[in-house]
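Thread title: Can someone regenerate the structure for this chain?

I was given the following input by a collaborator and told the matching structure tokens would be attached. They weren't. Posting the sequence so someone can regenerate them.
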Amino acid sequence: MPCVTSRNAVVNCARSCSAWMHDSMRSATPLVDLQSVSPQLAQKLSELSMRLSHTQGSTGSADPAAADRAATEYRRLTRQWESAVAEIRGLQTFSRFLLPSSYEDLQATGRQGPVIILIASQYSCSAMIVPTLGDPHHVPLPAVSLTGLHNLENRFTTI
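Best answer:
Regenerated them for you:
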């Protein structure tokens, strides 16, 4: 597996985890961080996010004219939201606001030891090991099953 492909695989895994975590936390941490630097931008983004969420629900209206107006409003709000995010990314220390970690960020996370990303499905299990230096390593885990990992997860969550 070429180095660039391995790094992209790791970043894509991190992006998936980041998206899941982002959804589960509802952007609380990035907004809290932004609030301390620019309360106005944090408020603007929060309001736009709420309006987008509300408008998205209106696009499924049975009335075609109402659905068209809602879709137009949704596109307008989306452009405003993207503009606000671009403005936030222009702030010092917010250049990666709402973006997944880069490969180098993942490496830095593992200063005390490598980052290990488990990849599991009903068909196979493997791990991507991100060392503090160099390229990631793919490690097949043929003796590990998805069911076994679920069992481990359950044991860890009850500790």
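The beta strands are 115-120, 125-130, 137-140.
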